[in-house]
Specification:
about 180 residues; alpha+beta; Hypothetical upf0131 protein ytfp; five-stranded mixed beta barrel; two-stranded antiparallel ribbon; 5 helices; globular
Length: about 180
Amino acid sequence: MTELWVFGYGSLIWRPGFPYIDRQIARLAGAHRALCVYSWVHRGTRERPGLVLGLDRGGTCQGIAYRVAPEAWEDVVFYLREREQVTAVYLERLRTIRFADGRAARALTYMVDRRHDQYAGELDEDTQLRIVAGAHGQSGDNRAYVVNTAAHLEELGIHDGVLSRLAARLEMPVAD
């Protein structure tokens, strides 16, 4: 491998947590961003799971690709495994991504494991809202995770209708 790119589709967009030498919007075909993972650690607990994003099969996903300097590859991969594989709900994969100019590259990314207990599948928006609104984990409030991700996607010109609608509903005042 001559380059290491990392494809981020959720919190890696607004909090990569590792050094990189280039950052570009990229598209990954064959998977889509979805709130399809029950979070037992970062944004929820086993008793009160939250929901976090996963790359699930089918469709396409726009996100951010980070190019990592060769001398940092080992440390970055170690960091990502520690961050993303806490409960082994993701499968580490090298997938082809495309940049706006048509170039392609291979990128390290994390796909949801549909066989894992934390795989939530496709939940309707009301169920997503109920789960996210009441969950909190080691990395903070589930509501903030969804709102932050939606806001950063919009800032980049990446529209995710489901996430945007959910974020708007989460920001609405709660009636007593």
